[in-house]
Each structure stands twice: as structure tokens, then as C-alpha cells.
Amino acid sequence: MKEITAIIRRDKLPVTRAALEALGYPSLTIQSVEGRGKQRGALCAEMDSELPDAFCTAVKLTPTPSSYALEHTLPKVALFVPKRLLTIVAPDDVVTTIVKAIVKANQTGRNGDGKIFVSPIEGALRIRTGEQAGEAIS
């Protein structure tokens, strides 16, 4: 078993969910998160990927401080972009298929498309029935 963790744009969530459901893997956990990568908190990367490239240089968008930065005194305000974090646990043999579907649904070729991490899972247990391992994730 593997855990697939994907950090994606907020607006790509419906397309990603539909792609996973089409594969037969509708079970996932979704969290709202904030973070930053190479774009360093620039919100233009989070906007509609169909905007012309010149738009980002013509319009100066100011990123919003994270909720942590607003509640704490920091020497420099940390800027974070809101994203969605998806967690999926799947059998080893379908991990590549799921990862390819997530990439296809989210790849725009611009900064801020996200990241995918795949980690091993040692075990799983469904609390309601006591099923373990593969039975617990289906």
C-alpha cells in the first residue's frame, strides 16, 4: 500500500475528483492548506491558467499574509498561497495510474501546479469492521 499526497490548485479540485472517480478511486481526504514553493507566495500563479503571460507582469497582485502571520509578530511577513491537499491510500499496483491521472488533471505548465508525494504505508485498519490492510482501504 502507498499513500499519495497531492498539493494542487484550489480550482483544480473538481477535475481531480472526477478523474479519480472515473478510475474507481473516489475515496480521499481533502484539506485546505497554505504554502509556498518557487513562486514565493505570488498569487498570479494561483489564478486562472488561461490568463495571458503578460497579465502577471501588467497587474501587480499583493499576496495576503498567512493566518499565522496575522496572529503572531514576525520580523518579516511570510506570504503563502492557499492550496488543496489530497490524501489517497491505494494498492501498489494502481499508484502509477492514480499519479498520472492527478498530473493530467492539474498540469498547466505554470508555477503553482503543485506537488505529489508517494509514501509507503505499513498497515491500515477500518475501525468500524476491524478489516485490515487492503480490505480496509477499499
Task: Describe the secondary-structure layout.
Layout: E1 2-8, H1 13-23, E2 29-35, H2 53-58, H3 67-71, E3 81-90, H4 95-106, E4 114-120, H5 134-137
Structure notes:
With 138 residues, the chain is of the alpha+beta class. The chain has one domain (2-137): Alpha-Beta Plaits, CATH 3.30.70. The protein is built from five helices and four strands; from the N terminus they run βαβααβαβα. It has a four-stranded antiparallel sheet with strand order 2-3-1-4, with helices on one face. The model is unreliable at 45-51 (pLDDT under 50).
Uncertain runs are 45-51
Average pLDDT: 80
What strand line-up does the widest sheet have? 2-3-1-4
The total of helices stands at 5
CATH architecture: 2-Layer Sandwich
Principal-axes geometry comes out as globular
Q: Strand share of the residues?
A: 15-25%
Quick one: how many beta strands? Answer: 4
What Rg, in angstroms, do the CA atoms define? 18 Å
- Under CATH at level 1, the class stands as Alpha Beta
What number of structural domains do the residues give? 1
CATH fold-level label: Alpha-Beta Plaits
Query: Portion of residues in helices?
Result: 25-40%
**What's the order of the H and E elements?**
EHEHHEHEH
Distance between the termini: 11 Å
What characterizes the major β-sheet?
Answer: 4 strands, antiparallel
Structural class: alpha+beta
